[in-house]
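During data preparation, we tokenized the protein backbone, and the record follows.
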Amino acid sequence: MTTAREIMTPGAECIGEQDSTLEAARKMTELGVGALPVCGTDNKLKGVLTDRDLVVKVLGVGKDPGQTKAGELAQGEAVTIGADDDAEEVMVTMTEHKVRRLPVIDGQELVGMVAQADVARALPQPKVGDLLEALSAG
């Protein structure tokens, strides 16, 4: 059984919910990532901010990225996966929630991020096809 911990990228860095989306974009560029977990002042995960969110929900609607807070884009409860959950469970969670990246949690601590590509490398080809089809639909 391959676990989320084995396939994740460790050491995910958060963007604070009070930080600007401009700061989030700079951090994504610096780290070479397309998504950042959003953490509150209580250090709890509030959501995930993606590069697409920045384009569609900030730039595309004329908002000022220097004034728009990362926390404004973190909607609802964050979808996460446990560090010891197997890769198949990661795939099911991504499929159910139609997300391509998941924060990996060990207890209450954010320990990494797992992306669609990480899961694809860990699963047999037929299951990878199911995941890609589910995430590409609609």
